[in-house]
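Rotation project, supervised by the postdoc (A.L.). Task for the rotation student: set up a whole-complex structure prediction and record inputs and outputs verbatim in this book. Inputs entered:
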Amino acid sequence: MEFDPRIFIELFAETIQYWWVIVPSIVLGLVVGAIPGFSAANTIIMLLPLAIVLPIDVGFVAMIAIYCSSRMGAGIPAILVNIPGTAGAAATPLDGYPMTQQGRGQQALAISFTSSVLGGLITTVVALIAMPWLAEVAFYLHSVEMIVVMLFGISLIATIATGDTLKGLTAGFFGLMIGAIGADVVYEMPRGSMGFLELYDGIPLIPALVGLFAISEAFIVIDRDTILTERGRAAVLHSTGWAPTIEGVRETLKRWWHVVWTSIIGLFIGIIPGAGAAIASFVAYQQSKTYSKTPELYGTGHIEGLIAPEAANNGVTSGTLVPLLILGIPGGATAAIMLVVLQYHNVTMGTDLFVNNPKLAYLPFTAMAVTYFLMIFTIPLLARYMSHVTVVRTVYMAPVVIAFTLVGAFVSRDYIFDMYLALAFGVIGYIARRTGYHVAAILIGVILGPLLETYFIRALKMSQGDISVLFSSTLGNILWVCLFLNLAIPIWFERRNGRRKVRSA
Amino acid sequence: MTEEALGGANAAAKPLQKPRRSASAEMIIPVAGIVFTIYYFSTVWEAPWTAQVSSFFVGCILILCSVAVIVRLALAARRGTMTLDLETLIAPRNFIVKRLALLALTIGYIFVIRWFGFTLTTFIFLMLAMLVLNEGRHPKLIVALSTVLALGGWLLFVVAFEVRFPAGLFETLMRGIL
Amino acid sequence: MSDDYLFELHRRRFLMGTVATITAGILSSGRIADAYAADFPSKNIKVYIPTRQGGGADLNLQLVTGVWKKLLKINFEPVFQPGAAGRVAYEQYMGKASSDGHELLFGNMGPEVLNWVVKKPTFPLDAYRYFFRVDSDPSIIYISRRSKFKTIEDIVAAGKKETLNFATSRIAHPATIGVLALGKATGAKFNPIPFSGGRNTRNAVATGEVPFGALPSASIVIQQKNFKALALFDDKNVLGGKIDNAPLVNAKFGTKLPPLVSARAFAVKAETIQKYPDRMKILEDTLRKVVATEEYKQAVIKAKAPWELISPGGQKECAEYVKNILAIGEEYGDLLRGASAKEAAKKKKKKG
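Outputs recorded:
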C-alpha cells in the first residue's frame, strides 16, 4: 500500500476529465449545503438510484464532489445570516457573522471559501500520503479516548465565556442539560422528554441550531433596518468590486499555517468513526483561540476564528474516507452511503482494493482534490454576489428567514413538532442573547452533550461501573494531560501577561 | 430586488438602544435551568444508573452556577446597579407589538401548515409578517415578494427536494396539473 | 437492526436542472393507479415504517411493493417514523391510521415487540396484529477477521475467565438476549454494550473496542470480508457458506434456546381483521403470490439481500413468533429494563 506519486499525478490528470460530473455536482452541493436541514447525506440518498446505475467511477466522483461542496455551502448562510445549516457549520458564525455585521461579509465569505478549499486540499494530500498509518487511528480511539476528545470540544464553553465566566458556564451547562433530554444509550429510558414521544431520541440538532441562531436573530434584528451595523452598512455600500474578495483570499493565504494545522485537526477527527464535523470545528476553534496571541478578539469577527472551523470541517471530509477505504468502516452517514454504492458494484474495501485496483482506491482522493481545485473558481463569484443579501432590509429578511428555517427544521424528520421546537429554541435564544448568555455556549452543550454522555456511559458500561476506566488507556492518559495543559496554558499566559503589564506600568 | 428592498443609502439606520441591564430579565435563564433540572431529576429518579450518572453531574453544576448568578444579580439589584424590570428583554418599547405579532404569526404559520400546505401558508405568512413589520407600506412589493418566494420555495422544496410537507390546496392542484 | 447497508432503489424523484447527466427514465418511480382496480384496494396504500428511510426495512418493503403494486394495481406510500426505537411509528399508526385496510405497518417483530416488554405501549398489545412475515433473519455472534478468537468455544472459554463485553445494536434485541442466554447456559459472563444501529455495532468490533458482537445475520453477510460469524441462534443454518458455515448454538452447547430471529412483517389493526376479512384475504393472498414470483426473487438477489432469509408466514406464524419473543422478553425483562439483580446491587452499593 506504499504511496506512489506517479499514480497520483496520472490520476489527477485523469480525474480532471470528470469535470462534467464535478462541476454540476459542486453547484448542487453548494445549494443543498446552503439550505438549513439539507445535508450531503440526504442529497446523496436522493441521488442513489442515479449513483447506482452510473459507472462506478462517475458515481463515486459525483458523490465526493457533492460531499465536499456542501460543506463549503453550509458556510454561506452561517456567515451571512447567522444560520448554520448543519452542525458542522455551527462554529462558523461565531466570527463569521460579526464580520458580516461590520460590512465585511464578502471578505468573510472569501476567507471561509479559501480556508475550506485549502483545508480540503491539504488534508486530501496528507490523507493520501499517510493513509495506511492514519487508518490505524480508528483502532486506538475508543470510548475512553473519545471522552477526552469531546471534552476538548466542550471546553470551548469556558473559552467562549471569558467575558463573564459564571454566565458563560450557566449557558453551557443549560445547553448540556437540554442535550441530556432523551433516552439513555443503554436502557433507552426516556428522560426529561416532557411526555413528548418526539423527544425520546433526544433533541434533534437542526431545530436547535436554526432556533438558537436564526430564529432568535430574526426576532432581534427587526428593530434595526438591516443586519449590518451603521459602520458596516457604510462599508458595504462604499465597497465596490472585487477588492474585499481579494483581500479575504490574501488574508487567508497570509495565515496559511493556521489553515494547515486546523485542517489537520479536522482530518484526525474525521478518521474516528462517529465523530464528525461538529466536534472537529468546535475543537479547532477552541485550539485556535487557546494558542492565539489575541484570544480576546475571537467572537468579534476575527479572521482566525473563521478560518479554524471552516478548514477543520473540510478536513473531516478527507478524514472520513480513510477508514472507509482501508477498513471498510464508514465513519458517518455520507461515507456509509458511499459504501453501499461501492458494495453494489462488488468493490471490496481494504488492502485488496489498493493492491488490485489502486486507481479506484485513490480516485476518491484525487476527485476530492480536483473538486477543491475547481471550487477555487467559484470563490470570487459567490463571495461577491452572495454578500449582497446582507443589505436586504430586515422587515423583508426576518419573515423569510423564519419561514425557510422552519422548513429546515421540518425536513430532517418530517415532524411538524420540530417546527414548534425550533420556535421554542428561538425564544430561548432570544432571551439568552438579550440578557447576555452566549447562545453558542448553549448550542455546544446541546450538540456535544449527548455525544459525550454516549461515550461516557458506554465506557462505564464496559467497565461495569468502574470509574477508573477513564484513566485505563495510555493514549487516553496522554490525551488527559494534553487537555489539562490546554486548559492551563491560557491561564498561565494571562498571568504572565498580567505580570508584564504590571512591570511595564 | 428594488431599491426599497435593498434598503437604500438614505434609509435611516436607527442606532441600537442600550438599556440599563435588568436583573430580573437576566434571571430567566438560570431560573429556567434550575426548574428544568429539578424536573429532569424527577424523571430519572427511578431509572437505571446508566441513565443518571452523567445528568446528575451536569445538573448539579448547572444548579450551582445558576444559584450563583441569581445571588449575584439579586445583590446588584439591591445595590441599585441593576433594575428589576424586563426592559433588557423588551426594549426598544415601540417594537413590542411588532415582535409579539411576529411571534403570533409564526405560531400560526406552524399551526395551519398541516391544512393549507407549504406554499399557501408560506405566502400568507410572508405577506402578513412583512406588512406588519413594514407598517403596511409598499403592499405591492410585499405581495410580489411573497408570491415569488412562496412559489420559489415550492419549486425548491416540494417539487425538487420532495420535502414531505402536508399537501395543501395548492400542492394538490399543481399535482393534478403537472 | 441492520439498517444502513441497504439502499433505496427509487424513492424520490429528484429534479435537478443542474445535473446534466440525469435522464428522467432512470428515476421514474411507478405509475399512477389504474382506474379499474377492484373495490379493494380503492386507493393507494400507506405503509408506516418504524425505522429510517434508506434502512433495511425500507429496502425490504420496496422489494415487496415493487411487485405487489402491480398485483393490486395501486401505489404504496411509505411513511417513515424512526423515533424512539420504533415506538413513534406504532403509536402514530394506532392513533391515526384508518382501519379500512388502506393503511398498514411494516415493522421488525423482534426488537419492536421487545419494546413493549420494556415499557407498555399506549394501546393494548392485541390491538394490532402482524399478518404477513416476509423474512426471518437469525441472530449471529460475529468477530472481526483480525480477532485473536477463532471459534465460539474460544469466546465462551474467555467469558468464563472474565466478563467479556460484546457489541449489540440495542439491549432490547433478540441478538442481545441470545448472547446472554448462552452465557447463562454455559456459565460464561457477557456484558452487552449497545452501539445503536448495525453500522456502529459492526464498527465497534472492527476497531477492536469490543471483542465480539451480535447482530442479525444479514448485516454480516454483506461484510463477510471484515467479519466472521461464529455461531447462530436458530434451528437451521440456511445461509451456509455466506456466514462461514457457523454452527448452531443449540447444537454446539446442548441448549434449548428458541430461534432468536428478527422478522419483518406487515401489520394491521385488529379491528381491520374483524371488520374486513375479505380485504385481509386479498392482502394476504397477493402477498403470498408476490414472494413466489421470480421477479421478486431476482430483485432480492440484485439488491444483495440474502434470498435464503426470505421466509413467508401468515397470521399464525406471526402470532406464534410474537408469543415467543414476548416470553423471552419477560424472562430477560429485568435486564432489558436495566434492573438486573447485579445492577441493582451495584446501585445500592453506590448509594450506600
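Student's summary: Chain B has two domains: 23-89, 92-177.
Supervisor addendum: Helices of chain B lie at 23-26, 28-44, 53-79, 87-90, 96-133, 139-160, 169-177.
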